[in-house]
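Ticket opened by: R.M.
Priority: normal
Category: complex prediction / small molecule

The reporter submitted a protein together with coenzyme A and asked that the result be attached to this ticket for the collaborator who will pick it up next week. Submitted input follows.
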Amino acid sequence: MPFAHITGWGMSVPEPVLTNDDLSKMVDTNDQWIRERTGIRERHIARENQFPSTLGAEAALKALEVANVQPTDVDLIICATSSPEHIFPATACLIQDLIGADKAGAFDLSAACSGFIYALNMAAQSIRSGSIKTALVIGTETLSRFVNWKDRNTCILFGDGAGAFVLQASERPGGVLSAVMRSDGSGGDLLSIPAGGSRHPATEAAIHAGSQYIHMDGREVFRFATRVMASSTKEALDAAGLTVDQIQHIVPHQANIRIIEAAARGLKLPMDKFVVNLERYGNTSTASIPIATAEAVTSGRIKPGDKLVMVGFGGGLTWGALAAEWTGPLPSERKVKPQKGSALRRARSFLRRVLRFIDGLLSPREL
Ligand SMILES: CC(C)(COP(=O)(O)OP(=O)(O)OC[C@H]1O[C@@H](n2cnc3c(N)ncnc32)[C@H](O)[C@@H]1OP(=O)(O)O)[C@@H](O)C(=O)NCCC(=O)NCCS
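Result attached by the on-call engineer:
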């Protein structure tokens, strides 16, 4: 049975930064309150021409370059996102087109902020089963478009960005070691975007009521999160046959520093085992774990052979944890060139449309 190794990583955040002081000019809040209650100092907000697909494609191309893998070698793209561009087509398909992953299946996975853990596990299981060899797992968000910038309970928390991993099959032991995925739909109303789906379409009345924005019971979500972070980390470790002393890092979902501190207390671990960067990005939902991991690997903090747990929670309610041994790029003879140039990508997409049109003309019609 092949092992599923994490061999590439990448991230992309939009340049514009929104500080706590900026927010204090928009709602009744202040830098001190936000820092003390959340740990967040600033977050990045997408420009008008940036979307989950464009940020996700940038992160994916970086991850492919690190892994030395061509887009055409990717068998499967799973895009975890809480801010999909459309109900359909899937954001994963938009990314597939942008990066030219011509042989990949592509779908979105909706598990709110736990989505990246779920997606990583699904991709790893596809590799472990032998059905695919190479997967791209992406967490990407422009949640700023679902934030009510007049609601101080939520607008201080979220930011935009994307992170991506490449997963590859290898007979060498290591990579993804275990995972747990859990849910509790009875708490669905604690964190939701009520309108925009088929139950409450985005009608004028729904928009007038602000139902297209994120609604959250912060205190209840806080209580839930502090309960599940430590327990699911322990479950993932048990399933991998590891103890907390045998892991070098925990990469938690970056929602609130107080939630991470509670998890550290629950696991009786010092805070320096936790990778934390929420002060600079806020809560980027599905992107927070791959962004934090990518930064920690790039800075040399996470090294090949290190064991780590990634753990997340979010709307649904959902939560999950995944234990892994960090690999890094597999040895390869060839060198993949970085893919740059949006003009080239647009031309390739246009060519595919033309080919599909010609194919349609040449195929016999069965009416
Ligand atoms: C949202 C959150 C930061 C609020 O922090 P808290 O310590 O629970 O604060 P409370 O909601 O108890 O509010 C305390 C007081 O601060 C006020 N307050 C709330 N937001 C504020 C803000 N942005 N600035 C200033 N004051 C604020 C409240 O009105 C309340 O005032 P009151 O005591 O006069 O009623 C916290 O509950 C949280 O992080 N929850 C989890 C949210 C989360 O992670 N969501 C994403 C999950 S993926």
